[in-house]
Automatic annotation (TrEMBL):
Record's protein name: 1,4-beta-xylanase
Membrane spanning residue stretches: none
Gene source species: Amycolatopsis bullii
Signal peptide feature range: 1-26
Gene3D superfamilies reported for this sequence: Glycosyl hydrolase domain, family 43
Keywords: Signal
Length: 342
């Protein structure tokens, strides 16, 4: 019987359905990763939420979902969603998925989307990552905002609440038509239930357009990655425009993050946005996926030292189709098996 169990485990590992035992530095309890993303505005269903599962604990090999269609659809707001982000509650018993309320399929008016776009985010809830609530539209930005793009969240134990942040163009109160020049900056609000939010405030405004911030915590520090949105159409130009910047701070909502490295991805891709970052389940390594917009979608990079800013491109990754700006979430064995069964 013992020999049969060993053989069965070996077959499951080979098939990518069971993660082999990791080294001593492996993160306990995780058996793989869930990838939530959208696929772009080129198809009617591209701006909905898609899921894929890693092959065991390999974040560079992914299983295509059965049927290949979206898992979640928005029937609120613009009826399209982009940039889905999934967060696990601190107790591990609930998940929230938030996304940009924006549908660009069949349109070519990006300026309209940042001057007179949605000021809300779309929210789903789940207890198991399989059964999700109906989507709800929740306003988070002030009336002077022209848009809410790429919302993400971090649980702040110091506050016992979630910090939700996003990019918005903010216009003067005496400019209700939003005709003056503005730029995206990172705003934030806090919440405990993703229903009621505090008054929004500015978190990160370098004086030029910046979008797509994401944050990871490690060793008592917070590392923030953002796209420097300068360049064609971004309000000025810079050698690092349309690439990713890494910063760090010891306090999540600090207004003084320190630069670690800019121009991330420049030697490997032609323009990047929508960075997502996560730690390996099996070793002391981090992955940074950068969305090469207009190209092949996400390109993976890796490092063993977040403080170094030394992100090396990874060759040969097998990502699920052409995923666009999303999230990679570590999942437990039970969660992995439920998602796989679906």
């Amino acid at each position: 019987m013992r020999g049969f169990r060993i053989l069965a485990s070996m077959l499951l590992i080979a098939a990518g359905l069971l993660a082999p035992a990791g080294p001593a530095s492996a993160r306990p309890g995780y058996a793989g990763y869930l990838f939530a993303y959208f696929t772009g505005e080129g198809t009617p269903d591209g701006e909905q939420v898609y899921f894929s599962l890693s092959r065991g604990n390999d974040p560079l090999r992914w299983r295509q979902p059965a049927g290949g269609g979206p898992v979640l659809r928005s029937d609120v707001g613009t009826k399209g969603v982009r940039d889905p982000f999934v967060i696990r509650s601190p107790r591990g018993d609930r998940f929230f998925l938030i996304a940009t309320d924006l549908r660009m399929y069949g349109r070519d008016d990006w300026e309209q989307s940042w001057r007179h776009g949605s000021r809300s985010i779309v929210v789903w809830e789940s207890a198991d990552l399989v059964r999700w609530s109906a989507p709800r539209l929740v306003p988070v930005a002030p009336e002077t905002a022209g848009n809410v793009w790429a919302p993400e969240a971090v649980y702040d134990p110091a506050r016992s609440e979630y910090v939700v942040f996003w990019a918005s163009n903010i216009y003067p109160a005496d400019d209700p038509g939003h005709v003056t020049t503005s730029h995206n900056r990172i705003m934030f609000a806090t919440t405990r239930d993703f229903r009621t939010f505090s008054e929004p405030k500015t978190w990160f405004d370098p004086g030029h357009s910046v979008i797509d911030s994401t944050v990871i915590r490690d060793g008592g520090k917070y590392y923030r990655f953002s796209q420097d949105d300068r360049g064609p159409g971004g309000g000025g130009s810079t050698p690092c425009g349309r690439y990713v910047t890494e910063e760090k701070a010891e306090v999540l909502l600090s207004r003084s993050y320190h630069l670690v490295r800019e121009c991330l991805g420049k030697d490997a891709i032609v323009g990047g946005e929508g960075p997502l970052v996560f730690r390996s389940n099996t070793e002391k390594k981090w992955y940074l996926f950068i969305d090469e917009y207009g190209g092949a979608g996400y390109r993976p990079f890796e490092t063993t030292d977040l403080d170094s800013g030394d992100w090396r491109p990874v060759a040969g990754a097998q990502l699920p189709g052409k995923p666009r700006h999303g999230t990679v979430l570590p999942v437990t064995r039970a969660e992995y098996d439920r998602l796989a069964a679906r």
